[in-house]
Specification:
Chain A: GO terms for molecular function: electron transfer activity; heme binding; metal ion binding; oxidoreductase activity, acting on a sulfur group of donors, cytochrome as acceptor; transferase activity. The structure holds 2 protein chains of 2 kinds. By secondary structure, chain A is of the alpha+beta class. Chain A is built from 12 helices and 11 strands. Chain A is globular, with a radius of gyration of 19 Å. The chains are: A alpha+beta, B mainly alpha.
């Protein structure tokens, strides 16, 4: 668990006072147990408003109440504001770099992504919302796997590291093309066995602290661990900018951090285990709009 | 000179503590999850206990529990019950059991065992994310003495 940071914490504390009032009102109406910001809307560039909650998917069987919430609702007003304007959102530097890489030939074949896929806006629309998914060969792949498959097998270029800046630039640029589209991962059919394993991991109590993802993000979202306001741990905004790290953070990188915080040994970024966990966690946000690239602290 | 004296005194007290200390796997538990006997054979120091409870790298109890008796401690969590009045609700033996391994009192509890070395699933060496090379690399979060200090502080929380 992280140490409270002066200013950051004070802000959250103030936020908490208003949130408490909001919760009192909510409880009076017999609504959910959470205390996300209820009085703010995620309107991007003053134009497009993204819903930050959705009816909870059936498979959760009420585990999160009747509503799932974006992590955006649990952050302080300044952090929320950064995500409302693409000029203020630091991730857009990485989007630009990703789009440049999209158009730049690389590898022994001398081809760029654009040579095969044309405009990123058209060919990559909706992809992020449906990943991870099962390939024709029956493997569960995340977006990073697809990117490296093209690089190594079609471009004759080297694979990028899962958490490398180049990879995050590209997954952010591709993810942005699905912004506003509902998360729509398949969890039945061939995906079902992977999903089941991810679910089992989500409820496993790892590390010396014996904590599962569910202990923090299901049982206690809306509560505070020291100065950390716990969200539902949704992944519809990844890759996202983390102010604390001053950089882009991938989904698996976040999983690593949370498992380390249990005094545990995390699985590796890109591992089979984390792709299964990614599928399961994505499915806990089914129906919520993709927010990529989000901003968090 | 003074430093040397302090060091000598510290070494002596550590030596004594080490001799009398009960290691995590040798604790005599009562049926109800309580531990009647002090882990060090001596009484804890409540002032030290307060420090352990409010220090992130030690017990960090305030991460989850609020304690109104510590109004100077910022950012107390709201995951777990407020601890004021704990000494009215529990005996010393029960509090020791809760601090050492709360799951013996509250099955499925979110509260970590503060004097427990396993079994765990994928335990790492503290927050390094690295697996232990040998079982002893997994150290209890608090020492026996720190547990007793915390218990001594909790015993001051009566209303």
């Amino acid at each position: 668990m992280t140490s409270p940071k002066g200013e950051d914490g004070i802000m959250k504390r103030q936020h908490r006072a208003t949130a408490v009032a909001a919760v009192a009102a909510m409880l009076a109406m017999g609504a959910a147990q959470a205390e996300p910001a209820k009085d703010d809307e995620l309107t991007i560039n003053g134009e497009e408003t993204l819903a930050t909650q959705a009816p909870a998917p059936d498979h959760l069987q009420g585990a999160l109440g009747d509503t799932v919430y974006s992590g955006w609702l649990f952050r302080d007003p300044d952090t929320r504001a950064m995500q409302k304007d693409d000029f203020d959102n630091p991730m857009f530097l990485f989007v630009d770099a990703g789009i440049e890489a999209w158009n730049t030939p690389d590898g022994t074949e001398g081809k760029s992504c654009a040579d095969c896929h044309n405009a990123i806006e058209d060919s990559m629309k909706g992809l992020r919302a449906a990943l991870p998914k099962v390939t024709e060969k029956g493997e569960l792949w995340s977006l990073e796997n697809f990117v490296n498959d093209c690089r190594t097998n079609r471009m004759g270029a080297e694979a990028w590291g899962w958490n490398s800046q180049e990879m995050k630039n590209m997954t952010t640029a591709i993810g942005l093309q699905s912004r506003g589209m509902p998360v729509a991962v398949a969890i039945d059919g061939e995906a079902a066995p992977f999903w089941e394993k991810g679910k089992e991991m989500y409820y496993t109590r790892y590390g010396q602290l014996e904590m599962s993802c569910a202990n923090c993000h299901e049982d206690n979202f809306g509560n505070y661990i020291r100065s950390d306001h716990l969200s539902q741990g949704q992944i519809n905004g990844f890759p996202l900018y983390r102010l604390k790290d001053q950089g882009a953070v991938s989904t698996h990188q976040r999983f690593v951090g949370c498992m380390r915080d249990t005094r545990g040994v995390p699985f590796e970024a890109g591992s089979q285990e984390f792709r299964e966990l990614e599928l399961y966690v994505a499915s806990r946000g089914l129906g919520m709009p993709v927010e990529t690239p989000a901003v968090r602290h | 000179m003074q430093n040397i004296l302090i060091l000598a005194a510290l070494a002596a007290s550590l030596g004594v503590a080490a001799m009398a200390e009960t290691v995590p796997n040798a604790i005599s538990w009562a049926e109800d999850g309580s531990i009647p006997e002090s882990l060090t054979g001596t009484a804890g120091n409540p002032d030290e206990g307060r420090v352990v409870m409010t220090t992130n790298a030690l017990g960090n109890c305030v991460a989850c529990h609020a304690i109104a008796a510590m109004p100077d401690v910022p950012f107390q969590g709201n995951i777990a019950p407020q601890l004021d009045g704990a000494a009215d609700r529990w005996t010393e033996a029960q509090l020791r059991g809760i601090v050492v391994d709360a799951k013996r009192t509250f099955p499925e509890s979110f509260m970590p065992g503060m004097y427990k070395v396993g079994p765990f699933i994928r335990p790492g060496v503290a927050y390094t994310a690295k697996p232990p090379e040998k079982p002893e690399d997994i150290r209890p979060i608090l020492s026996a003495r720190q547990v007793e200090d915390v218990v001594a502080y909790l015993m001051t929380l009566s209303e």
